[in-house]
Amino acid sequence: MIQELLHPAIGLFFLDGLLVTLHIAVSSIVLSLIFGTVLGVAQYSQSPLYSRMATFYIDTVRNIPLLLFILVARFTTGLPPVHSGIFAMTVFTSAVIAEIIRGGLNSVHRGQWEAARSQGLSYYQTLRHIVLPQAFRNVIPPLLSQFTTVIKDTSFVWAVGVEELTGRGMIIMGKYGSTSQVFAIFGAIAATYFVVNYLLSLAARYQHGRLAARSY
Amino acid sequence: MKRQYFLLSLVVLFIISLLAMGCGGTAPSQPAKSDAAPEIKAIQDRGILKAGIKVDVPKFGYKDPQTGKIEGFEIDLVKALAKKLVGDENKIELTGTVAKTRGPLLDNGDVDLVVATFTITEERKQSYNFTDPYFTDGVALLVKKAGGYQSLKDLAGKKIGVAQSSTSRKAVQAEADKQGIKVNFLEYGSYAEVKAALDSGRVDCFSVDAAILFGYLDASTVVLPDRFSPQEYGAATKKSNVALAKLVNDTFNDMKKSGEMDKLLAKWGLK
């Protein structure tokens, strides 16, 4: 019975789901990193308007479940299912990343600002060339942790019918899910998420090591 | 600077991929019939019938992992409708639905109709137009052979797994009340999860419509002979799409009269 599961076509079908997962995860990570950084900088800003607007967005989004964003985005944006998933995950993840970035900005010593400004750099030049690079270096571990969460959270989009990794596993289970296979399929889904996240953490650790070495 | 260009390229690539995916696959439009209702004319002008179907229910709507094709009795019904509406059974756009998304997809116009093991109920009729039933089945019980259960009575005090938003729970509860026994329910997101719960011993029984259960039958399980509360499946359309609802219903009734519906049921082992 279990041999049926080892058919190459089923493996390809499953891996195709992994590509959908990666498409959603990578797109939302890249977009969230951009929006999250803008939000984090806005929240850190001394302008009360920017700071309050960013704080309102972050507090609101972080207190609503991701699944709700996914359902609402699917039925209100008019985007295709995968893109509505990316949109919902970006809205949600950018709020989390904003908090991480704000923490990173806070961790940069105030003296760095003063030194840069005394050299004649503007606020944005100081932020871009002096403070943000250091902040990013400091927040690599929590950012990585958030990226792995994003990869795992993509499984929520199956709730609106997107056939990502978990969804493909469920479909395979629909036909081949007898007692022994069910756990083999669950195991394959879990192992695939683990491998992807483990490779990501290895890559990040390598990059973190390089950056740390360069800064001394 | 290199890193900035890399980041910028990623964003540009993403935007291009969004645009490319959004623009893909326009179909040649069909000659419009001037006397057709606006919702029917819209489908004919578009040249594609958009339907919400199941992708995880073997025999009804199932994406076969070996071929990658979505197949089943309900898919054949959608094809027959596409042939009538736009003149080609292959001019269909299928959207996978789950119990939670069937209604909203109709409401917001993502799909023209839903043919997805949708049980007709009085409550649902308030929100959507349903066709006459194209398939009638009873709620049944799938149990482990090793449990030695013979009927619902033997499941007194046991846990029964059902899918969220399904009508099975109500049907089994009504029958249990009638027989004067108490049963407990655990709800899961999909049929596959209920089956996994049965396999792992989290529930003692998996309950849904018999035809769906037969898709999950294996050497270690058995479907009990009990059948409760006949479940009738109908195709649903948005409440305001009255003309489309009539056309779909007429098409199905014609298929019943001509014997085509029976042929399809037999093809998928549902008769």
Instruction: List the helices and strands of chain A in order.
Output: HHHHHHHHHH
Number of DSSP strands of chain A? 0
Please tell me how large the radius of gyration of chain A is: 21 Å
Largest sheet of chain A: none
How would you describe the oligomerization state of the chains in this entry?
Answer: heterodimer
**The number of domains of chain A:** 1
Count of distinct strands of chain B: 14
Shape of chain A: elongated
Please work out how many helical segments of chain B DSSP would assign.
Answer: 10
> What percent of the residues of chain A sit in helical stretches (DSSP H or I)?
over 70%
- Fourth-level CATH superfamily of the largest domain in chain B: Periplasmic binding protein-like II
Order of helices and strands of chain B: HHEEEEHEHEHEEEHEHEHEEEHH
Family (chain B): Belongs to the bacterial solute-binding protein 3 family.
InterPro entries (chain B): Bact_solute-bind_prot3 (IPR051455), SBP_3_CS (IPR018313), Solute-binding_3/MltF_N (IPR001638)
Protein name (chain B): Extracellular solute-binding protein
Pfam families (chain B): SBP_bac_3
Summary, kept brief:
The complex is a heterodimer of chains A (216) and B (271). By secondary structure, chain A is an all-alpha fold. Chain A is 84% helix and 0% strand.
Task: Explain the layout of strands and helices.
The complex is a heterodimer of chains A (216) and B (271).
Chain A: H1 2-5, H2 8-44, H3 48-62, H4 66-76, H5 81-107, H6 110-118, H7 123-138, H8 140-153, H9 165-176, H10 179-214
Helix pairs in contact in A: 2-3, 2-5, 2-9, 3-5, 4-5, 5-7, 5-8, 6-7, 8-10, 9-10
Chain B: H1 2-23, H2 38-46, E1 49-53, E2 56-57, E3 61-63, E4 70-71, H3 73-86, E5 92-96, H4 102-107, E6 113-114, H5 122-125, E7 128-130, E8 135-144, E9 159-163, H6 168-179, E10 184-188, H7 191-199, E11 205-209, H8 210-214, E12 221-223, E13 228-233, E14 236-238, H9 242-258, H10 260-267
Parallel strand pairs in B: 1-5, 1-6, 9-10, 9-11
Antiparallel strand pairs in B: 2-3, 3-4, 6-14, 7-14, 8-11, 8-12, 8-13
